[in-house]
Design goal:
The complex is a heterodimer of chains A (210) and B (176). Chain A is an alpha+beta fold and 210 residues long. Chain A folds into two domains: 31 residues; 169 residues, no CATH class. Chain A has seven helices and eight strands; from the N terminus they run αααααβαββββββαβ. A six-stranded antiparallel sheet of chain A has the order 2-3-4-7-6-5, with helices on both faces. A two-stranded antiparallel sheet of chain A has the order 1-8. The longest helix of chain A has 21 residues. With 176 residues, chain B is mostly helical. Chain B has two domains: 82 residues, RNA polymerase sigma factor, region 2, helix turn helix motif (Rna Polymerase Sigma Factor, Chain: A); 91 residues, Winged helix-like DNA-binding domain superfamily/Winged helix DNA-binding domain (Arc Repressor Mutant, subunit A). Chain B has seven helices and no strands. The N and C termini of chain B lie far apart (58 Å). Chains A and B meet through helix 2 and helix 3 of A and helix 1, helix 2, helix 3, helix 4 and helix 7 of B.
């Protein structure tokens, strides 16, 4: 650019135009980044003796963490599990329902195994999408099941205690809390009472897990 | 063992802080959707964590991470993500807005970038977003450096043409 400028006024004008364009280009590609992006990446590091991801993670396995930072802290504003369920579903639920990338059984099983969790075929065979998500007490799993009643969201919370069969309603949806052998789950959708047994009986500790 | 693990974690965190934002921007331009871009970056850093020992020099981390991300994109998303047509669906609102003229230029340029064929868009983004040199881009895309330079030139020419065609302010004399 400096050499172009020294070559004469017409070259100087061209150099200035090129610099303006490059500045505009840098500005255009500089799209904003979500505030929680880097903090969410830190959550991906395994801690202690937690089992690491199996090597067979592949297409359709969605690992996005919700916008809430989950470095061992309860997100401000969650005064109860119910608050968390409503807040988390409003933030992530519709987006998960809209996703076109589906998960296959092996990938779903692999992700659950990272939480020392297994699922019976009745549940795992109808998982459409699955991802890691924040919960009141750390990371959990957010699943969308393809059921006869339509899509059903199941949020697994490995370290959260709930009142079994507690119900709540919001935004024309029903939700139910399910106490599990390890952790708990929130089921969100329609006719959720019909799926209590499915969720309660299908999600179980992984055999030989830590 | 604890110290090694801690050092590994610190190293990972440094990489995430240094490169996470640019990788996200590149991923967003690549796949066109915020949620998928976040997934792509998450997957990239998961694999990076697992293979961290393979990165001998943190100075090469940027290229290393981009390679992982592009492979993940090709393997996971390339066949399933629709072509980006609406840049408004991609970019999130910014807190510090430029003036209206500048914003019009920027917005039109963003739309034009999104519409570039991938063979032009990708090298351009690798250069402008990630900061790779022509040699690094050539290695990444497995093409010659002259091919990289040609594609970069053509990408810019197409963008300038788009700006001129729409009579964008600041360019009324066709000085681009």
């Amino acid at each position: 650019m400096r050499a172009a400028r020294r070559a004469g006024p017409e070259f100087e004008a061209a150099a200035a135009a090129a610099e303006r364009f490059e500045a505009l280009l840098r500005d255009a590609v500089e799209v904003p980044v979500p505030d929680s992006l880097v903090a969410d990446l830190a959550v991906l590091r395994p801690s202690g003796s937690r089992r690491w991801w199996p090597a067979a993670l592949a297409a359709g396995l969605l690992l996005a963490v919700g916008a809430a930072t989950v470095i061992g802290q309860l997100r401000p504003g969650w005064d109860s599990v119910e608050d968390y369920v409503i807040d988390h579903y409003r933030h992530d639920g519709p987006e998960m329902l809209a996703r076109q990338v589906t998960t296959d059984t092996a990938q779903a099983r692999a992700l659950l195994a990272a939480f020392d969790l297994d699922a019976a075929p009745a549940l795992i065979d109808i998982i459409d999408v699955i991802k890691v998500c924040p919960t009141p007490d750390g990371r959990g799993v957010h699943m969308v099941l393809n059921t006869a009643s339509g899509p059903l969201t199941v949020i697994y919370m490995p370290r959260t205690t709930v009142t079994d069969r507690a119900r709540l309603a919001f935004d024309d949806l029903d939700a139910m809390l399910v106490e599990l052998p390890v952790g708990s789950a929130a089921v969100v959708g329609h006719e959720v009472e019909n799926y209590y047994a499915l969720v309660h009986d299908s999600l179980r500790p992984l055999a030989g897990g830590s | 063992m604890g110290t090694e693990r801690d050092e590994r974690a610190r190293r990972f965190d440094r990489l995430a802080r240094a490169h996470g934002a640019d990788l996200y921007r590149f991923a967003l331009w690549l796949c066109g959707r915020e949620a998928l871009a976040r997934d792509l970056v998450q997957e990239t850093f998961l694999r990076a964590w697992k293979a961290l020992e393979a990165l001998r020099d943190d100075g090469a981390a940027r290229s290393w991470l981009i390679t992982i991300l592009r492979r993940e994109y090709a393997r996971t998303f390339e066949r399933k993500v629709p072509t980006l047509v609406d840049i408004d669906a991609v970019t999130v609102p910014e807190t510090a807005e430029p003036g209206p003229d500048r914003r019009a230029d920027r917005d039109l340029l963003r739309e034009s970038i999104a519409r570039l064929p991938q063979r032009y868009r990708e090298p351009l983004l690798l250069q402008v977003v990630i900061g790779l040199s022509c040699a690094e881009i050539a290695r990444e895309l497995d093409i010659s450096q002259s091919a990289v330079m040609t594609r970069l030139f053509r990408a810019r020419e197409k963008l300038k043409t788009a700006l001129q065609r729409d009579g964008i302010t600041g360019n009324i004399d066709g000085s681009f």
